[in-house]
Amino acid sequence: MLARVFSCAVIGLDGVIVEVEVDTSQGLPSIVIVGLPDAAVQESRERVYSAIKNSGLLYPRQRVTVNLAPASVRKEGPAYDLPIALGVLIAAEQIHPNELEGTLVLGELSLDGSVRHVRGVLPMAAVAAQQGFRRVFVPEVDAAEAALIPNIEVIPVSSLRTITAFLKGRLVIPPHPPIHPEEVPIPVQTDFQEIKGQEHVKRALEVAAAGGHNVLMVGPPGSGKTLLARAVPSILPRLTLEEALDVTRIYSICDMLPADVPLIRSRPFRAPHHTISHAGLVGGGNQPHPGEISLAHRGVLFLDELPEFGQRVLEVMRQPLEDKIVTISRAQGSFTFPANFQLIGAQNPCPCGYYGDPVKPCTCSMGTILKYQKRISGPLLDRIDIHIQVPRVDYEKLSDSRLGEPSAIIQQRVESARQQQRERLAETSLTCNADMRPAEIRQHCTLDDTCRSLMKTAMNQLQLSARAYHRILKLARTIADLAGAEAIQPPHLAEALQYRSRMQEEN
User: What's the rounded Cα separation, in Å, for the pair 107 and 109?
Assistant: First the structure.
């Protein structure tokens, strides 16, 4: 008898419906799986056999052939265990085939028949709803994740025995109630009010958050660079539902979604170590998976000790910083992952970390300092809008018991500025000032006579490049948005100019 059960594969970030065909025929008891399976899928033969036997069900003593269609799509992972097992039971006439009509099945089987977690449930449930499936069988631990998708019934499955009893009408399994995003709690983040001193750095990070600008912080060890970076997600605008689902889908595919968190509602914060590989940062593998820049999508990518990263690792970020996507090409095809992140870098001014420090003398030679600073290429530095010095914090400020301005207050100002930008750029695909192209800069960053005179003086004295000119205008536009001003005024332009690194232009 021929049986058909529908499952799903994940290619890149998208789900692809897979038809699991199971046929029994005369011959020695055996099971053959075809349809471009990987090693994990091939191993499901033993898992399915043991799960059926240990669940008190009858395994057919015939030749069993399993075809995973379409055969052109690579099948990987153990998510096909449950659909194969149900297909075998249908082919053995232990389950009526009509019981799985309009149903998508996902799940890994243990040898005792219990159903285990699988990765990528969210995108697979989403494609099931798009393709018109009315219900989906998922592992019990993944049911909340699938319940984020509306217009589809989610049946949590704990074991092969229970789902078989459910299909035979002997057991009732209530569907998982729909998950509303507002019901998912937002985790507690580092608050700006806990950071002592560094008021000018906080201001720079507020400007960066308001306009989506990249930041580089330079300062001695222990000045608070890492703490400041970790506090940035707390002042970024809250994720919309669409953005939250976008981020959650990436984490689900990478199998990094916490078990008790079906939906990521806070901005991602990724801080990879400087020993990370090229593939680890941008993504890769034989079957490419997202890297750190995609895991930081809609959030912050923090690179501490920036000069310590490999030069090749840093240079591959230049294209994602501009295009907000990363494309990985392999023999099997090209895969595109989102990479719309905000870069925050931190570094010491020199190898010992104390160049320019008023308290502790620097032990590095000038040649060593220059060599250290030039580890970061000019093209990469040119894509960083804000360069800010982070000095050591005085004892008086550290010992002060008073709290600073809370992140919630700063976030309100950032939200207001972002709303102005969305309205201004409504006719384009852009969402913030940092993404503006020359045409938008010319339209929205006009200068009066006083500002033009100030800009001319700055261009001549600081020897700024054309790219720096546009970057400063975008920064000034963001500062004006934070002030609620319709046009860029001299104080806004002056503040934007002070965030430009002279060292960058000299290099």
Answer: 6
